[in-house]
């Protein structure tokens, strides 16, 4: 089976599925979605490509098991980040246990495992119904997962009992991960010649106070009680802009920051932090106009260690429960009422030029999930 998994991965890597919203080299997910769909059709498993817009596509397939009213959801994302700085990014290269190529680790390896699971259960009895899902745009705004939740999940006979999102977790069971929110503050002043500052209002000066307040908030977050799996929440400035010339008093300036969110942190807490930042900027001397707002957010994810998840842990050889510092589409699945975890292979270099996934870990992940599914007949 390892050879088949590697062949699946090789074919996936060969297709440019770079997210076009992140890189001009991206062509969207249509080609890779159609390839995955054909894999399932060749196995006799009903499958379909769902166009979200233009060349942005999901693929879904449903294998009806012996108990059609007991559904397990599996998920992977088809898009990858850009290939800048990489040599032959769409060619799978093996060096010992390491399989190099764009998306091998994040997360075409997990997609290859799903395809392998489908191959096995197309030839052997399956105790439950398997919903295989492959989505677009996880690396950006998750339009694929939003479309899946709205249009595909309601077509299933019942709400899935569990979602397994095959992000790379080093074969640990990810029962939680952080959310995030993006904020911006925009400051409007009055432009003037640099030799006549009294005629202008410099929009850049308040950003110094804003940065200091963000540093204070981040320090406070680091002193709060940590989450047992995720540690502390945090924030960081990510973008800053302002002014038009060195000899002109800047009339506009803007700063964007990201806040990483722990399970249980309230929207009220985030709103209060934003108001602190706005207040600091407003109190800077000068007639500045201040606008602060949240521009985008995604929820954190946390699931209870129930009987089904405990069964996966036992079958995995008691792999550790863990929390993931990154965000994943599993949060949107849990939010829709499907308890969803992360579980996938080991490797290195998500978004990096030396990205690789472990060949041995691919087969380990496959065997664990296959045996977990077989054990569901005892649920």
Structural write-up:
This protein is of the alpha+beta class and 379 residues long. The mean pLDDT is 97. The strands form five sheets. Strands 1-2-6-3-7-17 form a six-stranded mixed sheet, with helices on both faces. Strands 4-5-19-18 form a four-stranded antiparallel sheet. Strand 18 (347-348) and strand 19 form a beta hairpin. Helix 1 (2-14) packs across helix 3 and helix 5 packs antiparallel against helix 6. Helix content is 32%, strand content 28%. The chain folds into two domains: 2-177 and 300-378, 3-Layer(aba) Sandwich (Aminopeptidase); 179-298, Alpha-Beta Plaits.
Strand and helix layout:
Layout: H1 2-14, H2 30-42, E1 47-53, E2 56-63, E3 67-77, E4 93-95, E5 98-100, H3 104-121, E6 128-135, H4 143-152, E7 162-165, E8 173-177, E9 179-188, E10 192-193, H5 205-222, E11 234-242, E12 248-249, E13 252-261, H6 267-282, E14 289-298, E15 301-302, H7 307-315, E16 321-324, H8 330-335, E17 340-342, E18 347-348, E19 356-358, H9 359-375
Parallel strand pairs: 3-6, 3-7, 7-17, 8-16
Antiparallel strand pairs: 1-2, 2-6, 4-5, 5-19, 8-15, 9-13, 9-14, 10-12, 11-13, 18-19
What is the compact description of this entry?
With 379 residues, the chain is an alpha+beta fold.
- The count of β-strands is 19
Largest sheet: 6 strands, mixed
Count of the separate structural domains: 2
The overall average pLDDT, rounded, is: 97
Note the quaternary state here. single chain
Q: H/E series, N to C?
A: HHEEEEEHEHEEEEHEEEHEEHEHEEEH
CATH topology of the largest domain: Aminopeptidase
Gross morphology: elongated
CATH architectural grouping of the largest domain: 3-Layer(aba) Sandwich
Backbone structural class: alpha+beta
Unreliable residue runs = none
Q: How much helix, percentage-wise, in residues?
A: 25-40%
CATH superfamily of the largest domain: Zn peptidases
Distance between the termini: 27 Å
Strand order of the largest sheet: 1-2-6-3-7-17
Can you count the helices?
9
Which range does the strand content fall in?
A: 25-35%
Q: CATH top level of the largest domain?
A: Alpha Beta
Radius of gyration: 24 Å
């Amino acid at each position: 089976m390892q050879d088949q998994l590697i062949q699946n991965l090789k074919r996936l890597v060969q297709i440019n599925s770079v997210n076009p919203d992140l890189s001009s080299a991206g062509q969207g997910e249509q080609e890779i979605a159609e390839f995955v769909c054909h894999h399932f059709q060749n196995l006799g498993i009903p499958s379909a490509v769902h166009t979200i817009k233009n060349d942005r596509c999901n693929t879904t397939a449903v294998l009806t098991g012996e108990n059609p009213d007991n559904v397990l959801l599996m998920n992977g994302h088809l898009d990858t980040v850009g290939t800048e700085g990489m040599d032959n990014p769409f060619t799978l290269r093996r060096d010992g246990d390491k399989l190099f190529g764009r998306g091998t680790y994040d997360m075409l390896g997990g997609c290859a495992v799903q395809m392998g699971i489908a191959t096995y259960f197309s030839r052997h009895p399956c105790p439950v119904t398997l919903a295989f899902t492959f989505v677009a745009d996880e690396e950006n705004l998750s339009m694929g997962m939003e479309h899946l939740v709205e249009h595909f999940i309601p077509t299933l006979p019942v709400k899935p009992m569990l979602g397994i999102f095959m992000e790379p977790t080093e074969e640990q069971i990810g029962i939680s991960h952080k959310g995030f929110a993006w904020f911006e503050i925009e400051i409007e002043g009055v432009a003037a010649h640099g030799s006549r500052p009294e005629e202008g209002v410099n929009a850049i000066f308040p950003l110094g106070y804003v940065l200091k307040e963000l540093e204070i908030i981040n320090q406070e977050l680091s002193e709060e009680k940590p989450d047992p799996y995720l540690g502390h929440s945090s924030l960081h400035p990510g973008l800053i802009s302002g002014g038009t010339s060195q000899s002109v008093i800047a009339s506009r300036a803007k700063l964007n920051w990201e806040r990483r969110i722990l399970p249980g942190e309230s929207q009220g807490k985030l709103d209060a932090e934003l108001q602190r930042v706005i207040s600091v900027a407003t109190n800077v001397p000068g007639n500045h106009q201040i606008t602060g707002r949240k521009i985008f957010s995604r929820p954190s994810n946390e699931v209870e260690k129930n009987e089904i998840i405990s069964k996966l842990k036992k079958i995995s050889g008691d792999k550790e429960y863990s929390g993931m510092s990154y965000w994943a589409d599993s949060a949107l699945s849990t939010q829709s009422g499907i308890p969803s975890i992360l579980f996938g292979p080991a490797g290195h270099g998500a978004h990096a030029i030396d990205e690789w996934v472990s060949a041995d870990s691919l087969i380990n992940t496959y065997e664990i999930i296959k045996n977990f599914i077989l054990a569901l007949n005892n649920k």
